[in-house]
Amino acid sequence: MLRCLIFFVTVSVVFPAFSQFTIRGTVWDSDKAPIAGANVIMVGTDKGTVADADGRFELRAVATGACTLEVSFMGYVTERRELAITSDVTTDFILFFDTKQLEPLVVLHPTRASEATPTTYVNLSRDKLKEQNFGQDMPFLLNWTPSVVTTSDAGAGIGYTGIRIRGTDATRVNVTINGIPYNDSESQSTFWVDIPDIASSTKSIQIQRGVGTSSNGPGAFGASVNLDTRSNRYDTTFAEAMIGVGSFGAQRYTLRGGYQINNFFVEGKLSRIKSDGYVERASADLDSYYFRAVYNGKVGVQAVAFGGAEKTYQAWYGVDEATMQINRRMNYAGAIYDSLGSIKGYYTNQVDDYKQDHGQVHLSYGLSRGWDASVSFHGTYGRGYYEEYQQGRMLSSVGLPDTMGIGSTDMVVRKWLENYFYGLTYSLRYSGMKSGFVLGGAASWYEPARHFGEIIWTEEQFAVPPGYRYYSGLSDKGDRNVFIKWNYRWTDHLTSFVDFQYRRVNYTTMGTQDDQTTYAIDDQFNFFNPKVGLTYGLDRPDSQYANSLYISYAIANREPNRSDYLGGTTKPRTERLHNLEAGWRKKTKTWGLDLNCFLMQYADQLVQTGALDAAGYPIRANIGKSYRTGLEASAVINLLEKWSWNVNLTWSANKNKDYVVFENNQPVNRDTRIILTPDWIAGSQLAWKPIKGFEAAWLSKYVGKQYLDNTESEGVSLSDYWINDLRFSYEIKPKGFQVISWSLLINNLMNVKYASNGYSDAGVPYYYPQAGMNFMAMMTVRL
After folding, report:
1. Rounded CA gap, 351 and 348, in Å?
2. Pairwise CA distance, residues 728 & 696, whole Å
């Protein structure tokens, strides 16, 4: 009963809102670096806020007259400023290091890393996401970050997309939205297509590569991606409309708005994205919504509701090499064959149709100086099916008696999934002069999850029992974790980091599969995931993290997913990862540099074999010992006044240490490259701003050769590719508008014919071709 109450309270909480004058600005230190977390208050009132990751702040609904603004941050001299409020005010603050204090403040985020955290990460602000957000799925917005490879089933970034970070697939990338796990509990994958255009509502993203710091949900075995759609400051009251068109029938329509009065703020978004797809019939029809209501008082409350509905024509079959030479856009999904094996037509409704709704309530409370607590409740409801035309299927294979002697017939089936996911997360934080502390964790339930198949049509006319389900199953998964993070500053330069997590998982599933085989699984896991590290500041204490060295060591464990249990010939084993990270971070006014080396050693890693199961999911198997190691470099360089260059480069070696191959019919252990892991990945964004409001950017991506199985066979591989895009944007701010902007993205300018993903069926390679030169154009009007 309590779990149901949590779910319905979460999805039904709503707040009203209305708005007035605004004080905004940025808090800097003496080196002109932003001070994230600086406290900004109006003296004598309860009105205040906290500077965001870029040091920016806003105070809304400020009355006309004089006021005193106080800005403070532990370790720095507090500054007060008298302001006369007769209209909106912009005022920046520079805080200077307080030499009377020995150490500046250490602040820990419950799940995110900071400059004091000895791990590898990158932050993306809303502005950076907005530059690249033309309606494509989230992986394509993250494509320019280090060690990332993206792919699209439909070939143009709309519909089903995938992301690999350091060669690890989406099932091994931990994803959270506002600290709430987003990975599907059973498959552990992330389906961005179910929440299209979530980027329009995202305030910031942090990507941690490697194990990273403790998070909620499945263990990170390659990276974690943390989205935050909330903010500690108000957005300006606004109304915004976006309209976009592009190649392959792409259309994008988004309406957003927000309004505020006193301590209340509310915003909402409706979005629709459509595409015919580069691959034949790989259409996508995507709808989404987002609503957020905020109350900022002694207790901070944010209620968030978002979700989407997607209907995509299936495009996960891939294209064989011979067909690629004739028709790269070929899609075998829905093909209907004649008696000679030739395609005589296509089933028009071979689609994936799924809906997902999320509700979140976030409560935060400042306990006393340096202490705060938060708790979040969440609930998700997902339901949908994929429809499939099946030829010549035996009646016995769907559990029907063949009383008429038909034997086999053509039929259309729907394979359904319905699930509920709900729970809570929590944290208790302390930020002190020399130390920072977080006690956090989560408890979630995935129940019940119903898997079942229905026959909705047969070619031969015979009676199918009403509501007949030819297979069905139930799943139940519980996931609890608790973690403790502690930073301690030993000297002006040296800070230690300790992070211990305990995670307990219970997974039960039983039923009948599509092929009528039965299964019954009941497993539980107890994982201890420790992490330790050091950060050493090379410069003076008041700017130590602008130039620092770090080193960390972490252990992570994770459980198999549903397809590992049902698709393998033996029971899968749990995986363990030992992760060593070491690097140097340097920031100045004109450039920044991040260098990192990593070693990730696996025991019993579950690696894709190259084959797919009947539902299109990659089949995985434990491979014993394996490793990923490499070097990552990224830099931001401001060239002169009008040029900037963001560039990254990754070299890595990814090997199975004892993979068994057969030579002359004899088993031999060999060190082979792990499937779909390129040795080299590089990205570049060169931007030019010749005049106010206009920007042109040249975007480049290089991905090295990848193998489609673990045998390192040259005939089963993806060729390397180098893609170049051009992006243009121009904005004006006429009277009565916040902004009017136009933008254009030309993808694959050189019309390179390439494939970014594939698989192997009995040694025969199949590819997912990506689009040649194509474009997206967009106009945005913001009031």
Report:
1. 8
2. 5
Mean pLDDT of the chain: 89
Rounded Cα gap, residues 603 and 157, in angstroms: 34
pLDDT at 615: 66
* Rounded Cα gap, residues 62 and 504, in angstroms: 48
Please answer whether residues 258 and 235 qualify as being in contact, where contact means their C-beta atoms are separated by less than 8 angstroms: yes
Section 244-256 average pLDDT: 97
The per-residue pLDDT for 48 is 80
Identify the residue whose tokens are 């199953």: 473
Domains, the chain, in order of start with CATH, read 2-95 (2.60.40.1120), 120-226 (2.170.130.10), 227-782 (2.40.170.20)
Quote the radius of gyration of the chain (alpha carbons, Å): 27
Q: What is the pLDDT averaged over residues 57-74?
A: 84
Strand 721-732 relative to strand 739-747: parallel, antiparallel, unpaired?
antiparallel
The answer to whether 521 and 508 are in contact (CB under 8 A) is: yes
217 contacts: CB under 8 Å, gap ≥ 6: 174, 175, 176, 181, 182, 183, 442, 444, 479
Cα–Cα distance measured from residue 250 to residue 244, given in angstroms and rounded to the nearest whole number: 8
Reduce the DSSP state of residue 550 to 3 states and report it.
strand
pLDDT score for 13: 41
> Between the CA of residue 648 and those of 100, 114, 145, 631, what are the distances in Å?
40, 20, 7, 11
How does pLDDT run across 336-376, given as a tens digit for each residue?
999 999 999 999 999 999 999 999 999 998 887 778 899 99
d(CA 303, CA 90): 29
Cα 418 to Cα 59, 305, 353, 358: the distances in Å are 43, 19, 12, 14
3-state secondary structure 372-390: EEEEEEEEEEEEEEEEEEE
- Distance in angstroms (rounded) separating the CA atoms of residues 423 and 3: 7
Residue among 665, 596, 583, 669 nearest 626 (CA): 669
Measured CA distances, 437 to 90, 207, 427 (Å): 34, 22, 10
CA angle (34 as vertex; 31, 35 as ends), nearest 5? 105
Angle at 388 between CA 413 and CA 272, to 5 degrees: 115
CA distance 81 to 264: 26
Q: Which of 595, 492, 501, 490 is closest to 551 using CA atoms?
A: 595
Contact 419, 450 (CB under 8 A): yes
Vertex 303, ends 299 and 305: CA angle to 5°? 170
Closest CA to 737 of 25, 238, 133: 238
**Which burial class, exposed, middle or buried, applies to 85 when counting CB atoms under 10 A from its CB (0-12, 13-18, 19+)?**
middle
Residue 485 CA to residue 576 CA, distance in Å, equals 21
pTM, full prediction? 0.86
Q: Which residues of 106-118 are buried (b: 16+ CB within 10 A; e: fewer)?
A: bbbbbbbbbbbbb
Q: Are 441 and 482 in contact (CB under 8 A)?
A: yes
Distances 435 to 119, 170, 231, 456 between C-alpha atoms, Å? 18, 35, 25, 62
- Token pair of 753 as six digits: 């014919």
> With bands split at pLDDT 50, 70 and 90, how would you rate the model's confidence at 569?
confident
Q: What is the DSSP string of 76-142?
A: B--EEEEEEESS-EE--EEE-B-TTSSS------SS---TTS-SEEEEEEHHHHHHH-SS--HHHHS
Q: Which two tokens stand for residue 223?
A: 């990276």
Q: Which residues pair with 77 in a beta bridge?
A: none
Partners of 251 in the β-ladder: 245, 274
CA 689 vs CA 126, 133, 369, 694, 731: distances in Å: 19, 19, 44, 6, 12
Give Cβ neighbours of residue 63 (< 8 Å, ≥ 6 apart): 20, 21, 85
3-state secondary structure of 642: coil
- State phi, psi for 77 to the nearest 5 degrees: -75, 125
